[in-house]
Design a protein that fits this description.
The chain has about 425 residues and is α/β, with parallel strands linked by helices. Helices cover about 35% and strands about 20% of the residues. The protein has 14 helices and 14 strands. The strands form three sheets. It has a ten-stranded mixed sheet, with helices on both faces. Strand 11 and strand 12 form a beta hairpin. Helix 5 packs across helix 7. It starts with a helix and ends in a 12-residue tail after the last helix.
């Protein structure tokens, strides 16, 4: 799987400090965490599904100790060959295709050797592509995800007809067996692992702390390895009862499985998701056989048309960065714009467009648009993030406070007002 070109220099430069270390003495988990904390761009690429934790850790290893052995005194005209490949020729072609990278090399921000080492690391993409079908078949049987979720706290698995699906569950320490709790199902982004996602969004960015404070359960389901050669959600209900090929059916089984272990309020089940996970949340909001009371989306979009949901009405809250480079705010030839998606749901929910209340928050860095039905039984809210943490709003799970409240708390305050049976706020 190729790294995005923009990530090449980021990783090469940030990781160069480990070149002289011996691999056997390095705590790779610690180095990975240090990299994420020191470089938000790398964290954004992980959260957006452009790369994975495994790929970054493999890269860290490749430029350190025994795994990285540059040739001595190679001149620019020397040939470095691996299995008959002219790496210098590939290097020149790579630079010719990316003027920005060429400029970085000319300015001394990266070296010829480092770029060639990257090219070697990412070679063999065709072999990986050929193997994807076999990996997909393994994924259907629950044999392929490479995530190590089973060693993570709160691990649960569902097995049915030879197919296995996994999820992690967080419950507040104050959980009382006599009380039914709401359930939030949080779908990760493209290529991610439930364990990494829970650690990042649940622990580091505080969603679990919000659940602890407000008294709700959070499930972090695991997507299966599919034909595109990664773990991702496939919106749409094909109508079959397969855990592996029908993510809507898997979601229903997850809710049933959680209800066997904890008392949940089946009328207060919510779906939230990041990026590809947001697509899944939107899909569940459209289900003609509803099981979700309201949804929340971080840096996501909807595939298909809200009008395809028939008479379904579902409240939606959506956060999106104005500088999102993965799912662009103004849309592109693959995805509709965020305002178009929101407008579609306003119409779907039969909310007058004239109900719009538009507010500028955080000194102009956040724009909030709220549409509410006359009886307040459904609503659609959009938070447009212009800047966060002194940077343009990107493709992330947002964490900077908005007028004194965290996005996690804003998310919960919105979701918790709605019930599946009434589709209207609590008194």
């Amino acid at each position: 799987m190729r790294f995005p070109k923009q990530m090449v220099l980021c990783l090469l430069i940030t990781c160069s400090f480990v070149v002289a270390q011996e691999e056997s003495k390095i705590d790779w988990e610690r180095e990975y965490e240090k990299l994420l904390k020191s470089d938000p761009a790398v964290r954004e690429k992980i959260e957006s599904g452009k790369t994975t934790k495994k790929e970054i850790m493999d890269w860290l290893r490749s430029v350190s100790g025994k795994s990285y052995t540059p040739k001595k005194k190679n001149s620019p005209g020397d040939k470095q060959k691996k299995a008959g490949i002219d790496w210098n020729a590939r290097y020149e072609k790579f630079l010719a295709s990316d003027p920005g990278l060429r400029k970085k090399v000319e300015q001394g921000e990266a070296t010829r050797e480092q770029v060639i080492e990257y090219l070697k690391l990412t070679s063999g993409a065709e072999d990986k592509k050929k193997a994807s079908k076999e990996e997909w078949e393994q994924g259907k049987r629950g044999e392929k995800n490479g995530c190590g979720n089973s060693s993570h706290k709160g691990y649960h698995a569902i097995t049915e007809n030879g197919e296995k699906r996994e999820y992690l569950l967080y419950h507040p320490t104050s959980y009382d067996k006599k009380r039914r709790l709401p359930l939030v199902i949080n779908f990760h982004g493209f290529g991610d692992c439930a364990s990494d996602y829970e650690k990042n969004i649940g622990s580091r960015l505080g969603l679990n702390a919000t659940a602890e404070k407000n008294g709700f359960l959070v499930a972090y389901p695991q997507a299966v390895f599919r034909e595109k050669g990664a773990r991702y959600w496939e919106p749409g209900d094909p109508g079959n009862k397969s855990l592996a090929t029908n993510d809507v059916y898997f979601t229903r089984q997850l809710i049933t499985d959680v209800s066997k272990k904890y008392k949940i309020d089946s009328k207060r089940v919510y779906a939230v998701g990041y990026s590809n996970g947001g697509m899944m949340a939107y899909d569940l909001a459209s289900s003609k056989d509803p099981l979700i009371a309201a949804i929340g989306v971080m840096s996501g979009t909807m595939l298909g048309d809200p009008g395809g949901a028939g008479n379904v009405r579902t409240s939606v809250i959506h956060f999106h960065g104005i500088d999102d480079g993965v799912l662009p705010y103004p849309g592109n030839r693959h995805y509709r714009s965020v305002p178009e998606t929101i407008r579609g749901w306003v119409v779907q929910n039969q909310i007058p467009l004239s109900s719009l209340v538009r507010e500028t928050l955080n000194q102009g860095n956040v724009i909030r648009e709220r549409y509410t039905s006359p009886r307040k039984e459904v609503a659609v809210h959009l938070y447009t993030i212009r800047r966060e943490h002194d940077k343009p709003g990107g493709h992330v799970w947002f964490s900077d406070e908005v007028e004194g409240r965290s996005p996690n708390q804003i998310l919960w305050d919105f979701l918790s007002r709605y019930r599946l049976d009434r589709r209207q706020p609590e008194p």
